[in-house]
Amino acid sequence: MVQSFYDSVLEQIDVTAERISLDKGVHKMLRQPERELTVGVPIEKDDGDIEVFTGYRVQHSGARGPCKGGIRYHPATDLDEVRALAALMSFKCAVANVPFGGAKGGITCDPTGLSNKELQRLTKRYIAMILPIIGPRRDIPAPDVFTDAQTMGWIMDAVSMYEGKTVLDIVTGKPLDLGGSLGRREATGRGVMLNTVEVLDRLGKDPKGTTVAIQGFGNVGSVAAQLLHEKGSKIVAISDVSAGYYDPDGLDIPSLMNFVETEDRPLLCNHPECQGFNTIDNDSLLALDVDVLIPAALENQVHSGNADSISADIIVEGANGPISKNGDSILNEKGTTVVPDILANSGGVIVSYFEWVQGIQSFFWGVDEVNANLKNIMLSSFNDVWELSKEKDVSMRDSAFMISLDKMAKAIELRGIFP
Ligand code: GLU
């Protein structure tokens, strides 16, 4: 049986606690979210019927600052998934050293079966119901799977209506016309590219000519594909929920990008030239003999059942939790270099931090400034994680977790336990 996502995260916390001799009390605190809210969210459907969805907001830790993390709309979302994702956000913010704690939200729903008006009603009602625990200095949501800038615009509007004034810093990942930051949409994919280029460099390899397979062609996978393509890497396989395409000579990334950027909710199977592409299924894509594999879809894609079949030397985790803890141990034994999610995909929350700061200051930066600051933070945290992994002879995941648990423990110790 595949280890659950939440069990994987808890096991990683336990292993790290042992490794850094973490205080037992702090260990217990990090194993349990600080606050959880489950809400039954009713909406009137377009046909007049009432439907009730279940939504969650989990705040894992506010030890290092206001809680921060996205909101996910997915049929498989449940409380344990949101707990796991909230904990990863705390560790991610600590590795990047941005002054946030970790949170996550989600609604169990199939957003593809809802109209835009229904999604807007669902979003605003959900936000109204979690309003008692969120806020610009309390907990700041952002996009995640199947939510985007438009969703964040609706959230900003709902909170602003309650407050009787425009509240920009309640949410990040907003549209540019509503106080969003330049570079935020591309930030997670850009961070994945920066981590890929950096890990290749540390291993003495050149991004030019490097072969890459990417699972997931949404906001993260597509941007990482485009930026790596611009670096001269050969993107040989991509996939999304609808289709997977493979070309050993490298796929036509500009044409695929043009397609996803011009379509509303694009699915790769609807690409006009898809009949001419070689298709590939999910398991074969993950097992491809490429230099770099980028899982950028959902959690638990690589696990004890298929980790042995992975041929890539390097995995850069664009998604949150794409490798189970059991799967990770198998990859470690094989010598696969894994750049862990809490480092590899932190570009999104780093630029969310910039957006939050810009909103508070009502002063907005140019894209070059955003990208330069992102690169600085990303390369410095990569360096910390890389150096510690060499020094302690542990995986990059272990060293990233050691760094973040250590930082969280310091914050908890300095604050003291209330009361
Ligand atoms: N959902 C993204 C993540 O998993 C971004 C979170 C944020 O910007 O707050 O990192």
List keywords for this structure.
Rossmann fold; 2 domains; 16% strand; alpha/beta; seven-stranded mixed sheet; binds glutamic acid; five-stranded mixed sheet; 419 residues
Can you walk through the features of this model?
The protein is of the alpha/beta class and about 425 residues long. The protein has two domains: about 35-170, Leucine Dehydrogenase, chain A, domain 1 (Rossmann fold), CATH 3.40.50.10860; about 185-345, 3-Layer(aba) Sandwich (Rossmann fold), CATH 3.40.50. About 45% of the residues lie in helices and about 15% in strands. It is built from 14 helices and twelve strands. The chain has helices spanning about 5-20, 25-30, 80-95, 115-130, 150-165, 185-200, 220-230, 255-260, 280-285, 325-335, 340-345, 345-360, 365-390, 395-415; strands at about 35-45, 50-60, 65-75, 100-110, 140-145, 210-215, 235-240, 245, 280, 290-295, 315, 335-340. The strands form two sheets. A seven-stranded mixed beta sheet has the order 9-8-7-6-10-11-12, sandwiched between helices. Helix 1 runs antiparallel to helix 2 (about 25-30), helix 1 (about 5-20) packs across helix 14 (about 395-415) and helix 3 (about 80-95) crosses helix 14 (about 395-415). The longest helix is centred in the C-terminal third of the chain and has 26 residues, at about 365-390. It is globular, with a radius of gyration of 20 Å. The protein binds glutamic acid. Glutamic acid binds next to strand 3 and helix 12.
